[in-house]
Amino acid sequence: MTSFQDFGLADPISRALKEENYVTPTPIQAQTIPIAITGRDVIGIAQTGTGKTASFALPILHRLLENRIKPQPKTCRVLVLSPTRELSGQILESFNAYGRHIKLTSALTIGGVPMGRQVRSLMQGVDVLVATPGRLLDMVQGNALKLGQVEFLVLDEADRMLDMGFINDIRKIVAKLPAKRQTLFFSATMPKDIADLAEQMLQNPARVAVTPVASTVERITQKILQVDHSAKPAILAQILKTEQVNRALVFTRTKHGADKVVKGLVKAGIPAEAIHGNKSQNHRERVLAAFRTGDIRTLVATDIAARGIDVDGISHVINFDLTNVPETYVHRIGRTARAGADGTAISLVAGGEELGYLRDIEKLIRVTLPKEDRRTPGHQQRPAAAAPSQHRPARSGSHGHNPRSNDAAPGSKGPRRRRRPGGGMPQSDRHEAGRHEQSRPSQNAKGEGIQGVAFLHRESRPAQNQPRRDQRPQRS
């Protein structure tokens, strides 16, 4: 397919696409849309930024138009699950844009905001509901939503939901859905747990795969700066002052680290903001809007919070902390060099365990990245946290769980928070991505989740004076 007109989409959808200046479909769209229109289940392997949203939204809207019925109260016809608030909001915006001539009813159900408005939005029923898994289960258990009328299920960024500990929530949700439905399943990688989940959820699916995870965009200039760990803040500030930066996205491994980097940049006279799971939803929306308009040119983010950031004009991606998941490196730098533009990806590598991470990345992308040594002569590097033989080998899609912080990359050693007097986990530290001990035995960080919810899962409320989760035996 070389044009959106070749898909035979309903006229109201075609008109909306023309208004959005959609002309030529991306590879994932060209392969997925004709299959999905027929009603067949689809497994799509594609990275963020390849046009996945249109590839599932357009055929679903077309099929909704073929069978226009009024949703029953407290139900939805289309359920889209995504890992983060930002990505969920962008998916809903896309549905509303493509369906602007359809009189589409839609709603957003995400954590981090009051639940009352979301409950009211579902009272009359909606055509399309986009949700994060934890908040969706709260709505179901609070009798604000019934899943028995779902005709279309979409799982977007399935591998990231596995990383965030959502897999058990997803299984609970799927168990409440009708067996007769169309399921569209998208993931950047296909680790065994995700493959098993897809096998349980889909019936005779078509498999579509584009943009292998090991690829990096040719228009991105990648380089490694070998630095002293203590010099990272000063070198980051120097890069932002001397490079021709339009917008810069800086990645840290932890939420605390993101805040610390922002403080250092502001002190150096460089305006910057952070986005991560501890920030309120209003803050996150305000900062993202300012980043899109260019009012803020430097955004510091964790991997989970950055999921769903789709902003054109990012000229630089800077890895302040190098990720220990090689596939995540590819996702990070893919935020730049979009729409035919050039981009720069700079990674600050402080030796020790980060050298092991770098070797894994180079093995995955099959490229030896150019390196520039900016270490102080004679400086003694800090010893690695693990012996070389203990470095995690390069992976082809497996995903681990970090029990300390959902914003730390899986397997990394994020900061351990001090426990409050009186025992138990503070309310501010509960979050949607780590509510179940079964998936995250010692979750201590607040992430993409729920604040001020009146009816949380029972197992997410630890009793006072209860032992730390990481001191209790892990349940099988």
Automatic annotation (TrEMBL):
Residues 2-30 form the DEAD-box RNA helicase Q domain. Its EC number is 3.6.4.13. Residues 428-439, 456-476 have a biased composition (Basic and acidic residues). It catalyses: ATP + H2O = ADP + phosphate + H(+). Residues 369-476 are annotated as: Disordered. Belongs to the DEAD box helicase family. This is DEAD-box ATP-dependent RNA helicase RhpA. It comes from Afipia massiliensis. The lineage of its organism: Bacteria, Pseudomonadati, Pseudomonadota, Alphaproteobacteria, Hyphomicrobiales.
